[in-house]
Specification:
The longest helix has 30 residues, at 74-103. The protein contains three helices and no strands. The protein is 81% helix and 0% strand. Helix 1 (8-33) runs antiparallel to helix 2 and helix 2 (39-66) runs antiparallel to helix 3. 19% of the residues are buried. The chain has one domain (8-66, 73-103). The chain is an all-alpha fold.
Length: 104
């Protein structure tokens, strides 16, 4: 018995992550666009929307790759990873900003 999961498990995980990422991205986008929110909250919502969109994009690429479109997805994979990196950097900058503000 190997350590490889059943073929249905990775498919289910990628689908769940994609659906949740898309839901969260839409929620944070709506929060970002809502009136009456301060700039700090809007920046945070934008960063979280970006990270969530990246999760959805990566899941879509992985699901398509499992469907046999691997070679056609090289650019899409790079783009989804770029979204992840940008979102992670944005969240890190927000955390650092908060840490510095608390230490003053």
């Amino acid at each position: 018995m190997g350590l490889a999961p059943d073929a249905a498990l990775p498919l289910a995980v990628d689908t769940l992550a994609g659906v949740c990422g898309l839901f969260n991205a839409l929620y944070f986008l709506a929060y970002l666009l809502a009136r009456g929110r301060g700039p700090t909250y809007r920046v945070a919502a934008g960063a979280l929307a970006l990270v969530s969109a990246a999760v959805a994009a990566e899941s879509a690429v992985l699901l398509a790759w499992r469907g046999g479109a691997g070679e056609a997805l090289d650019g899409a994979w790079g783009t989804s990873r770029l979204l992840s990196a940008l979102g992670a950097v944005a969240v890190t900058l927000l955390v650092l900003r908060r840490m510095i503000a608390l230490s003053d």
